[in-house]
Write a structure and sequence with these properties.
Elements (H helix, E strand, L loop, with lengths): L2 H17 L4 H9 L5 H8 L6 E3 L22 E8 L2 E8 L10 H17 L3 E5 L10 H17 L5 E5 L2 E3 L4 H5 L2 E5 L4 E3 L3 H8 L5 H5 L1 H8 L4 E3 L2 H12 L40 H8 L5 E4 L7 E8 L2 E8 L10 H16 L4 E7 L6 H5 L2 H14 L4 E10 H6 L9 E4 L4 E3 L3 H15 L3 H18 L4 H5 L5 E2 L5 H11 L18
Parallel strand pairs: 3-4, 4-5, 5-7, 6-8, 7-9, 12-13, 13-14, 14-15, 14-16, 15-17
Antiparallel strand pairs: 1-2, 2-3, 10-11, 11-12
Length: 520
């Protein structure tokens, strides 16, 4: 065998060994937990044969605690580029079979390299997290590595889509990278995120809590909103990432890919003409409206388990990707509260950053009242949503279906927040408040002084009708030009699509500034 052949043989053997990560025993342990390995996840995610790996032979440089005596090629993270449905992406996947996937200085450098390349080449960056946190043996070098990653998350924000898949532990400072990215997917029962683990919580507060109850997928998808999606297993998590990318552009200079459809743009849906109940306090399901207007009735919801009184997600309309924001009358009457406001604001800002038009479906009776909401900063949180819509320069089409009252009317993409096209159904009520509340304020004293209950009730009904006729309809707003047109519900899909096509070349910019000061 020639020297060249020996060197090639050595390369092949080194590659084969690197692919095995921490070895078969640790791979088996990973499978026993119901988890895939880093490379198995990458293989599932990327188009077959498209993965180009970087830094397979990187070693850590730590000599503390006899670390110089144990090395694994790749040092606990697999990094590189590939394609998903033919579109370029950059990816890193932490390998739990090597040092528990703990972050070292060199691992951070590997991750930063692909993040830099994603920025340079204008492609999404996907991080698959499965790590025990910072590598303790490396001390501040590991912490510095986290800082380098976070800085790139910040610089990449609004430039290229960033997606985090949490497929195992993610604790301590490591949680801030997913928090800085655009979307986070967690896996039920095998992944968790928290700043301090159960042992520390127990020692500090005396509280006994499991990892799942402290920071599992069900907690973050339902209660905190940290996770946008909760997957059933690794395979489901990968599927969600792939589907999500289908609605997103490569970067902030491009538009999302066109998806051909046989669903006619002019399709009408007669069921929408009957969906609004006669009783203004009776709920209906906003999902029916969303699926009616979307191509082929397909809606990809984001944050489906969190703040369910507002719905956000992606759809295609006549082949073009759109972001949909809609109040849900079935949950808390569609009222806006702290969580719903933050959820929608974050989504609106993402869509605006990546050139995805916004379709807003309004049926909102107002903001949720009470001490819990006020103490939770409903003023600031409501302002976040208002701010998000007001600064958005993408095409914005708003349809008011029923209620649109008070401050909540303004917040939900009204004409004064630079809404491009604002439509209303004939059933729309656009006013400072509903008739009941208005009559109590306007005529409360007069009604209270009336001794005859029958006369009092009669006057109250007369005044309610007077207020209804004046304000609780879309015509007053249309008269002032705040509503561009009142449309027949069954034609909603066609009117939105035609509006978006008219706005396709919209150009609007913000005043020159270093950056805004969003009410965080």
């Amino acid at each position: 065998m020639s020297i060249q052949q020996e060197k090639i043989k050595e390369l092949v053997e080194r590659r084969a060994k690197a692919v095995m990560g921490g070895g078969q025993k640790r791979i088996d342990a990973q499978h026993k937990k119901g988890k895939l390995t880093a490379r198995e996840r990458i293989d599932l995610l990327l188009d077959k044969g498209s993965f180009e790996e970087y830094d397979m032979f990187v070693w850590h440089r730590c000599t503390n605690f006899d670390m110089d005596k144990q090395h694994y090629d790749g040092d606990g993270v697999v990094t590189g580029q590939g394609t998903i449905d033919g579109r370029l992406v950059y990816i890193f996947a932490q390998d739990f079979t090597v040092s528990g996937g703990s972050l070292s200085e060199t691992m951070a450098q590997k991750i930063c390299k692909v993040m830099d390349m994603a920025m340079k080449n204008g492609a999404p960056c996907i991080g698959l997290n499965d790590s025990g946190g910072a590598r303790i043996q490396e001390g501040t070098n590991a912490l510095a590595g986290f800082g380098e990653i976070f800085e790139r998350n910040i610089l990449s924000s609004g430039v290229v889509p960033q997606i985090s898949g949490i497929f195992g532990p993610c604790a301590g400072g490591a949680v801030y990278s997913p928090a800085l990215t655009d979307f986070t997917i967690m896996v039920k029962n095998t992944s968790y995120m928290f700043l301090t683990g159960p042992a520390v919580v127990k020692s500090v507060t005396g509280e006994d809590v499991s990892s799942e109850d402290l920071g599992g997928a069900s907690v973050h998808a339902v209660k905190s909103g940290v996770a946008h999606f909760a997957a059933e297993n690794d395979e489901d998590g990968i599927k969600i990432i792939k589907e999500l990318l289908g609605y997103l552009p490569q970067n902030n200079m491009e538009t999302a890919p066109f998806v051909p459809t046989s669903d006619p743009a002019g399709r009408i849906d007669d069921s929408l003409n009957d969906i609004i109940p006669d009783n203004p306090n009776k709920p209906y399901d906003m999902y029916h409206v969303i699926k009616s207007i979307a191509d082929d009735g397909k809606f990809f919801e984001v944050h489906s388990k969190y703040a369910k009184n507002i719905i956000v997600g992606f759809a295609h309309m006549n082949g073009r990707s759109v972001g949909i924001v809609a109040n849900q009358p079935k949950i808390l009457a569609g009222v806006l509260d702290n969580n719903a406001s933050r959820k929608a604001a974050r989504f609106v800002r993402f869509c605006d950053a990546f050139n995805i038009p916004l379709v807003t479906l309004v049926d909102v009776p107002g903001f949720l009242c009470g001490t819990q909401q006020e103490y939770g900063a409903i003023i600031d949180n409501g302002a976040k949503l208002l701010y998000a819509y007001g600064e958005a320069t993408v095409p914005k089409v708003t349809v008011t279906l029923r209620k649109s009252y008070g401050g909540a009317h303004i917040v939900m993409s009204c004409k004064q927040l630079r809404g491009d096209l604002n439509y209303a159904w004939p059933s729309a009520n656009i006013a400072v408040m509903g008739a009941d509340g208005a009559v109590k304020i306007l005529y409360g004293k007069e009604l209270k002084e009336m001794e005859n209950p029958e006369e009092r009730a009669k006057l109250a009904e007369e005044k309610k009708k007077e207020y209804d006729d004046l304000f609780c309809n879309p015509y007053q707003a249309a008269k002032m030009g705040y509503i561009d047109d009142i449309i027949e519900p069954r034609n909603t899909r066609f009117r939105i699509i035609r509006g978006l096509e008219q706005l396709a070349n919209k150009r609007q910019s913000m005043p020159a500034k270093k950056h805004d000061n969003l009410p965080l």
